[in-house]
Each structure stands twice: as structure tokens, then as C-alpha cells.
Amino acid sequence: MMLKIPDILDKGGVAKIRAILDNASWVDGNVTSGVQSGMVKNNLQLPELGDAAQAAGKLVLEALGRSPLFMAAALPDKLYPPLFNRYEGGGQFGDHIDNAIRIRKGSDYRVRSDLSATLFLAEPDSYEGGGLVVEGMAEEPGVKLPAGHLLLYPATTVHRVLPVAGGARVASFFWIQSMVRDLGQRSLLFDLDKSVQNLVAKNGNDDVDVVRLTGLYHNLLRRWADV
Ligand code: NI
Questions:
Q1: Which of 48, 60, 88, 133 is a plausible cystine mate for 142, CB 3.0–4.6 Å?
Q2: Residues lying with their CB under 5 A of ligand 1, a single-atom ion
Q3: Distance 34 CA to ligand 1 centre (A)
Q4: How far, in Å, from the CA of 222 to the mean position of ligand 1?
Q5: Domain range list for the chain
Q6: Which CATH code, of 3.55.50, 4.10.860, 3.30.160, 3.30.450, is assigned to 183-224?
Q7: For residue 47, how far is its CA from the centre of ligand 1 (angstroms)?
Q8: Distance from the CA of 97 to the center of ligand 1, in angstroms?
């Protein structure tokens, strides 16, 4: 399941984060790579534990917490604190699969990456190329969303970021450990949740089928969730 979630940040929220990022110093992106992905990666990142990444990351986390759609789709248990990258001057990231377990530097905080997320922080027409291609889900020229929009996709997929020929592609990226590890189960819950919400809008909260289906949702979640 690949999901586009619009308006995680509004224009003001994007500007606030960009003000932090555009004044920060960036380093070679290979600081977070595994051995295979390090060979195919050519971009810049904000130092993970630096003030800029921490301040901007806090704003991203707050925005995610305000998105019912993100919560329903990801059913997050833990998040890896948001990181930030920048591709320019031909920068790209070739085919790779994200590491299964991410361990936060200098801590024992670890996250199993069930889902990968990219929050776009530059308008698509401000850079050339730079689409995100996800095997079996998004072919070339790849996905480029408006600034403030989020792309959520299974961390199990091979993906790449195409070369950025002009301008700069700036984004936040992070991983989510879901309460429901299995993609199929998580997708079923999300479908059920969407239909229940539609039914509530039509019939109200006390409709007998709304009550039954809400109960069914929670009983499936109880069966499948690890918390
Ligand atoms: Ni990746």
C-alpha cells in the first residue's frame, strides 16, 4: 500500500521548517547508510543529533500527531525521529531497501522499519527530476508531491530517488514501527476504518451497523496489534 497524505504541513509550517533547514550546515548523506545503500547514495543530510534536525524534527512529529489519516494508515507504535535530506547538482539515491532495524545513535532506541515516509519540503516545480520510484507501485518519473504532503510506503520495497538535475529537492524522511507489523492486516484495518468513517458521516455514531463495525475494527486490532 502506497498512500499520499496531503497537507501534513500547511505553507506556513513548511516555511518554518525550511527556515531552519536553509540556515543549517549539511553533511554527506552516507552517515545513515548501510553498506549496500552507501554505494548508491549521493545526497546531503542534516546531522541527526544537531540542533537543526532536532528542532525541525519536533515540528514534523507535532504535525503528524495532528493527522488522523496518518494515524489510521500507519497505526504507529514508534517512530524513528525525522531526518532531513537534500539532493542537488545531480544528486540521487539508487536502488535500495531501507535497513530493517534502525538504532538511534548514542542510545538503545530502536525501531523496526515497517513503513517508510517522505515528507516533501520543496515544491515539485522548484527542482528537475528527483522523483521517488517505488518498485511495483510508482514507476518513472516517480512521485513528487507538493511541499507539506507525505508519501507513506512499505519499507520492504526497493526504491530510488532519481537524479536532481536542477534546483534542490528537500525532504524529511523517517521510519515507522507499526502496532500491526503485517502489511496485509494493516491494509485491511485501514480499509475497514475508512468505511466506518464514511458510515458514521451518513448515519451517525449510534447507528447499529456503525457500532458493530467499530467493534469489529477494535477486535481485529486487539488480535493483530503488538504494543
Ligand atoms: Ni530509502
A1: 133
A2: 98
A3: 10
A4: 31
A5: 3-178, 183-224
A6: 4.10.860
A7: 17
A8: 6
What is the pTM (predicted TM-score) of this model? 0.95
* Distance from the alpha carbon of residue 227 to the mean position of ligand 1, in angstroms: 26
Cell numbers representing residue 49 in the block: 543529533
User: Do 42 and 90 touch, CB atoms closer than 8 A?
Assistant: yes
Beta bridge partners of 110: 103
Cα separation, 159 vs 175, in Å, equals 14
The Å distance, Cα 206 to ligand 1 centre, comes to 44
Per-residue pLDDT of the chain (227 residues; tens, 9 = 90+): 899 999 999 999 999 999 999 999 999 988 766 667 667 889 999 999 999 999 999 999 999 999 999 999 999 999 999 999 999 999 999 999 999 999 998 899 999 999 999 999 999 999 999 999 999 999 999 999 999 999 999 999 999 999 999 999 999 999 999 999 999 999 999 999 999 999 999 999 999 999 999 999 999 999 999 99
Per CATH, 3-178 and 183-224 having the same topology is answered: no
Q: Look-up: residue for cell 535500495?
A: 96
Q: Which of 54, 56, 68, 74 is nearest to 13 (CA)?
A: 56
Query: What CATH class is the domain 3-178?
Result: mainly beta
